[in-house]
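Morning!

As promised:
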Amino acid sequence: MPLTPAVATQDIAHDEPQDYLWTLNFGPQHPATHTTLRLVLKLDGERVMEAMPDIGYLHSGFEKLGEHLDYNQYVTVTDRMNYISPLANNVAWHGAVEKLLGLELPPRCQYIRTIICELARISDHLLCNGAVGLDTGAFTFFLYAFNQREALYDIFETLCGARFTNSYTRVGGVMYDFTPLVVQKIRAFLKEFPRTLEDMERLLNRNRIFIDRTKGVGLLSAEQATNRSASGPIARASGVARDLRKDEPYLAYRDFDFQVCCSKAGDCLARYLVRMAEMRESAKIVQQAINNLPAGPVNVGIDQRTAIPTKKAVYSTIEGLISHFELMMSNRGFETPHEECYSAIESPNGELGFYLVGDGTDTAYRARCRPPSYIHFALFPDLIRGHTLSDVVAVLGSLNIIAAELDR
Amino acid sequence: MPLLADVQQALATRFPDLRFSEFRGDTRAVASRDAAYAVLAALKNDFGFDLLVDITCVDYLNYRDARDRFGLVYLLANTATNARLTLRVFLNEPELSVPSAVPLWEGANWLEREVWDMFGVRFEGHPDLRRILMPDAFAAHPLRKDYPLQGRGERHNFPVLTRNQG
């Protein structure tokens, strides 16, 4: 049954004296926050009258570090922002750097980055939806999701040696090219994954308990979503048909046939369903990309002076040798324009962008990250107002707040 | 997507002081501190820039050829046409304040709090301008260029509570 909408209880809270309200401290260490964030809740019985987020527990100065690490070093820090889908952060960061430098990536690199972005989206949505299931009592669902995440981690490990913090991209390319084994593993995953997705949908989509816990909870209207800068699955679940993959096609998204998944309901259930549908579309994109993976170089050429040339080029051509030395010497590196630009991608969580200011050196003068979690967490007090204490975990889970990205 | 030529033309006629520039397909405009709010309101209400993507700030303390200390950056997008516009406002001490954009976009609330926390730029009329990431008692604004990377001893001078004291 739908719970009392937020508006109905709001007036009561303000009209009557509030000294009977009691305060509950939720977090910073709590299993259902999943990460380190704190909420101070004002409760009327079980009903949340006011939620006051208190963030900053994981603030580690990532943007300040961005002004001291060079463009290739900083990719390791982007891994640690949204560590649920680090590959998408890597692509967003180096996409911004390449825009500042004006580099055009070779087609194979664009395809590879598209594939890893979509795999990262699947892994992010699996965790987010799995955690929503876990928090609302569906533990088996969580295990189904994590089983598939394990397969993805296995692909990432084959790809670049790291399971969790991948740091896979480089300025003007990627760390390693796809090997036949990676392609084989991705194909095997694509064969297995739709079956698991169907199982997951069968488990939860028509589950009475889950629907009661999520339907009508945490309502966000389309106008509010736009006015409050929401993006990604959260805006799309409220009926805002905005997806940077379609609206501002970057990388190779122009070449693929896929749909933007939307819902009009704007509640926790809609956000869950949009993420489920997006995973299927992502698998479709990966399938198309892996079937049409272009041959050719994976990094930009030697004349661009940004990506480390191949060993063959270093040992057999003078240009390759010079380029290698220049990139390796700590007082050389590459030059950036005295300019600033903003570049964004549709990360699993929403619009993830970097605002970069170049100052001629290979270290950013300012590296601002536009973190979707930060913007979505600002919505939280309004989404939870009037709902019960047990809905806090459902709303928090459906917003997919990653505290490392929230605080940076 | 870059700004359409006729939109830019209309903006330039309405606000003759706006300075436009282009870089890698992005349109940027520079507004004066006094005109900032009027330009933002016009962009939102008359030019359809309904999505505030981000508000951030850059400290140009040691930047080559920079004449102003701080540059506020408003990243705006039009969800109907997918056009984007970057609006920049330069600020200097001691007038480190601009009108808050919260009346236009509620999403500006936390973004402006972060700029205040990190750079010390005040937003006049903001409903709740408190620190957001740093502790309330923190004295400095850490993303300013004159603030050192390793801090000013805040961390290792932190009071340590033992279990018995608790």
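Confidence is low (pLDDT under 50) at residues 1-9 of chain A.

Hope this helps with the figure draft.
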